[in-house]
Amino acid sequence: MEWALTSINPLTISIFAGVVLLILFLRPKNSGKKPPGPKGVPIFGNLLQLGDLPHETMYKWKQTYGPVIWLKLGEVYTMVVQDAASASELFKKHDLPFADRKVPDVLTAYDFNQGTLGMNQFGGHWRVLRRLCSMEFLVNKRMNETTELRHRIRDNMERWILEESAAARAQGGTGAIQLSRFLFLLAFNLVGNLMLSRDLLEAKDPESREFFDCMNKVLELAGTPNIADYLPYLKWMDPASMKRNMTKNLGRTMKISSKFIQERLNNRKAGKFQEKKIFLMCCWSTRAMEKMDQTGSLRRISTLLSP
């Protein structure tokens, strides 16, 4: 065993070094005209030069290289625009080439990015999502129709806060509560009522606590820098286990969301509800959803329901 370890370590290092050199040699050369920018180091580019406050570092670079700076963050080429005139020209004359947003690797779990308006690639499906939101969801008529509903959800939140605070004091505590959890429940139930015409979670429901905890982890992972986003050839390794953790937590939240949606669809199929068309039915009846199988459509709609 000792011989194996001492012989494998140098071999592993040699293979890794060879792979890195091969990637550096075979990667495409970007010989086109580029904006000025600081010179980076091999493999990492300018990634290690950003420091703890990247926005301040970029502002300092602006004094040297101008308002438009070209950076290489690992293997990701990035253009930084730091004045209004350049930004205006970018969005007016070059909007389509820059329409897509760089999607973090963790948000590709369960194709989550394909079901969200902010992370979806520009194209036909993105237009469907935008049309659904602009015509069926984020419209004045629907907002006005839900005034009473929003007041009821707010009142429920206030009642839950008072009940939990009183319960905490009864147990000898200070009565302090975790306000963020109740605000999360309020937002989730509001979306649930707009889409499914029902409250989805109760404050004392164990499933609501699990959903809240998992969504907190999802949001934390989505905002945490991941080295695999800058060195794409490391994605298969998932060196920080971020993709695995995202898959675990996001899978649980989507399972809970899918249960609500499937229940609502089953009730509709059985003729138990006769109310007017809700947002869920609009999603289900769109041409883009009809082209998918039931599992694919359910996953996309579950993504829309997730806050």
TrEMBL record:
<keyword id="KW-0503">Monooxygenase</keyword>
<dbReference type="Pfam" id="PF00067">
    <property type="entry name" value="p450"/>
</dbReference>
<keyword id="KW-1133">Transmembrane helix</keyword>
<dbReference type="InterPro" id="IPR001128">
    <property type="entry name" value="Cyt_P450"/>
</dbReference>
<dbReference type="InterPro" id="IPR036396">
    <property type="entry name" value="Cyt_P450_sf"/>
</dbReference>
<keyword id="KW-0408">Iron</keyword>
<keyword id="KW-0479">Metal-binding</keyword>
<keyword id="KW-0349">Heme</keyword>
<keyword id="KW-0472">Membrane</keyword>
<dbReference type="GO" id="GO:0016705">
    <property type="term" value="F:oxidoreductase activity, acting on paired donors, with incorporation or reduction of molecular oxygen"/>
</dbReference>
<comment type="similarity">
    <text>Belongs to the cytochrome P450 family.</text>
</comment>
<dbReference type="GO" id="GO:0020037">
    <property type="term" value="F:heme binding"/>
</dbReference>
<keyword id="KW-0812">Transmembrane</keyword>
<protein>
    <submittedName>
        <fullName>Iridoid oxidase</fullName>
    </submittedName>
</protein>
<dbReference type="GO" id="GO:0004497">
    <property type="term" value="F:monooxygenase activity"/>
</dbReference>
<dbReference type="GO" id="GO:0005506">
    <property type="term" value="F:iron ion binding"/>
</dbReference>
<feature type="transmembrane region" description="Helical">
    <location>
        <begin position="6"/>
        <end position="26"/>
    </location>
</feature>
<keyword id="KW-0560">Oxidoreductase</keyword>
